[in-house]
Amino acid sequence: MGIIYRLALVLAIIGAINWGLIGLFQFDLVATLFGGQETFLSRTVYSLVGLSGLLCIPLLFRAFEEEDAQTVNNRETNSYTNMNYQTEFGEENDFTEEQRKRALELYSNDDDRNNNNTTNS
């Protein structure tokens, strides 16, 4: 997103906050800061907020491109944007019969070593 659109969003947010203050508390922050609604500065701020609102309209219909949605490959920032519904162990590998036999031999050798260590103690 370009600097113009970011500035337009900031001004639109300022305008939204001002309208919220007017609606909730009947307090016009822009008029208070710049000496009333009729001053040149207040009218300039109102005009800029209005133009920025018009400039933000295309953002509603814009398709976000890949570079706009940068995802980082760590769990903290990517956990809500890239849901992974697999188990914590991931996918299981398909072992060949030879790999299964080798794994069973290693497992049984480890058990034998552990049993020998406990009986010798």
Automatic annotation (TrEMBL):
<keyword id="KW-1133">Transmembrane helix</keyword>
<keyword id="KW-0472">Membrane</keyword>
<feature type="compositionally biased region" description="Basic and acidic residues">
    <location>
        <begin position="97"/>
        <end position="114"/>
    </location>
</feature>
<dbReference type="Pfam" id="PF04070">
    <property type="entry name" value="DUF378"/>
</dbReference>
<protein>
    <recommendedName>
        <fullName>DUF378 domain-containing protein</fullName>
    </recommendedName>
</protein>
<keyword id="KW-0812">Transmembrane</keyword>
<dbReference type="InterPro" id="IPR007211">
    <property type="entry name" value="DUF378"/>
</dbReference>
<feature type="compositionally biased region" description="Polar residues">
    <location>
        <begin position="75"/>
        <end position="87"/>
    </location>
</feature>
<feature type="region of interest" description="Disordered">
    <location>
        <begin position="75"/>
        <end position="121"/>
    </location>
</feature>
<feature type="transmembrane region" description="Helical">
    <location>
        <begin position="7"/>
        <end position="25"/>
    </location>
</feature>
<feature type="transmembrane region" description="Helical">
    <location>
        <begin position="45"/>
        <end position="64"/>
    </location>
</feature>
